[in-house]
Amino acid sequence: MWGCNLNYRFGKWELNAEHFELLLDGTRVQVEPRVFDLLLLLAANDDRVITKNEIIESVWGGRIVSEATISTCVKSARQAIGDDGKAQQLIRTVHGRGFRFVGKLEKTAASAPVQTPEAQTSAFTMPALIILPMQVFGSSDLEPFADGLVENLTTILTRIPLLSILSRTSSFALKGKDVHYEDLRERFGVKFMLEGSLQPLPSGTRVNLQLIDTASGFHLWAQQFDFPASENLLEQMLERILPRLEPQLWRAIMAHLTEIGDQGSSRQALLQAVGLLSLKGWHTDTFAQSTELLRMSIAEEPGFALSHAYLALTLALGHRIGLLEKSHQIAAEAMQEAEKALELDGMDSNVVGLAACALADIGHVARAIPLLRNAVEINPNNAQAWSALGSAELMDGQTTAAIGHLEHGIAISPMDGRLAVWGTLLALAYLNDGKLDQALQAAQNACMNDVKTYLPRLALAATHLVRIETEQAAKALVECYRINPDLSQTQIDLLLGSEMGSTVGKLRAA
User: Fold this and answer.
1) From residue 347, how far is each of 270, 289, 307, 336 by CA, in Å?
2) pTM of the entire structure?
3) Which among 63, 235, 305, 313 is placed 20 to 30 Å from 363, CA to CA?
């Protein structure tokens, strides 16, 4: 995508499109990339109103974002140039339409054609997804649920990093039409399509879904869901479908990466790192591999905030729970990467959630909590940020709040290896709150979510000990050492705390 080849001056301010700089009286002002892109878009089109869809297309590359994210970006743009929502002397809100730059502009030619940062990245293209309108059989009463399911899936699945999802406008334009997967691939360039149907049952609703590869027509995943009659039918659909659909999308993405081979792209390395952790769980080897992939991604594209944020979290979490070496160097690198991610893009919910979680894991809890609250305000569907907020609150002694936010994060998260870690933290929160039955259930659920990690087994052992169930605690601890024969007392203390860790250590010795 080619940017504007003009520079813009208004009052004491200048937008230098050639060097991507905002200047005040010739001095560079620090602004986030998306804020600069928005200012440039508005200035370049000061003769008309810019719609929110145009902002999404230009600033976020067509990736669906929430209304709150756009509003935050506009607010930051106004603050950057000394404007505000009341005065609107430079950026005016046209209600129901969009935004327009109304300041007096002086335009000068840049010395060379300008290319935006997105265009300077490598040629790797993330496979795209289209969610087709759901067919309805047997009852027109299901039409609103069918449309609502498509719209909500389209919005929520944007939490998958870099996944391009065709807009609902493009999708609903196909409603009632007979479309073929090859036509969709040719017309929209999508790699995957999700289609499905709703039909009434005697006492409920059936939903059928299929994820299809548009290159081959093969079904990558298909599942049938039956729902009882309920006033909250749509919410129940999302709660059951999303946790099962999202991991299948990740598997499809990872298979695509294997298919195309190594293209040396920073984005490709990032996806491989995230997919590795999502599908294979949080273990010493996956953390080591992911760390190296993320460092490769950053070396290839230093200005990509998401890679910095994921590296910060991987380092910090590995440092906290002993999956990476616990050292000052690891903690310092995690801190540096988190700060860099927030500097590059402090308005993206994924970036903020990951970076803030990293800050909490290396001990900066007071700073992390408000950042995490901001992340879930920007995108209430950010399961990672909700769980990270609960984890940070647990470290801060806010046990009741921690339980609520961990429960919510787990409820809206995909069914993958992350649930084992979040479930471990939930079990420990219940344990701290004296809710021993809930702690036992959460620990057992976490163990089922990942059979290859020792973390939930440690929480299970601790829970059994508090419940004075020594034999069961010993069995859970045996499982810990079967999975990780090199498990150290330091790693036990890092997860359980020194007091409970010492009690578990005595059981181990016995």
Assistant:
1) 20, 28, 15, 18
2) 0.75
3) 305
